Amino acid sequence: MNERSEYTETVRRKAKRMAVARRRRESLFRHLAQVGVLSWMLVVPLVLSAFLGRLLVDVFHRRELGLASLAVGLATGLWLVWRQLGRSLAQASEEDDHGDDVV
Predict the structure, then answer these.
(1) How would you classify residue 25: left for phi > 0, otherwise alpha for psi between -120 and 50, otherwise beta?
(2) ∠43-90-49 over CA atoms, to 5°?
(3) Does residue 40 lie in a domain region?
C-alpha cells in the first residue's frame, strides 16, 4: 500500500506542475501583440513631437526647439513603454503567485 501512496503523490505533483506550465504558456501571438503595442507607444509620441518640432522651427526659426521637441517625444515614448512593461511584469508575477494553488 505504501508504493501506491508514493505513486499517487508522484502523479499528483506531476499533474500540479503540468497545470502550472499550461497556465504559464503564452502564445506567440500574445507576445507579438505586446511588441506591437510597445512599438506604437514609442513611435506615436515621437512622431507627434516631430510634427510639433517642425511647426516650432517654422514659426520661431530656431532649430533648438525642434530638437527639444524630439527629445521630449522620445522621453515620453520611453516612459510609456517602461510603465507598460512594469505593469505587464507585475501582472505576470501576480499570476505566478496565484498559480501554485492548483490541485
Answers:
(1) beta
(2) 15
(3) yes
- In the chain, the largest separation of any two C-alpha atoms, in whole Å, equals 89
Look-up of cell digits 507598460: 84
Prediction pTM value: 0.67
| Structural domain that includes position 87 | 2-98
Domain membership flag for residue 15: yes
Q: Is residue 75 part of a domain?
A: yes
Count of the separate structural domains present in the chain: 1
Q: Does 103 map to a domain?
A: no
pLDDT tens digit at each of 103 positions of the chain: 577 788 888 989 988 888 877 776 667 788 888 899 999 999 999 999 999 999 999 999 999 999 999 999 999 999 999 999 999 888 877 766 665 554 4
Grid cell locating 68: 527639444
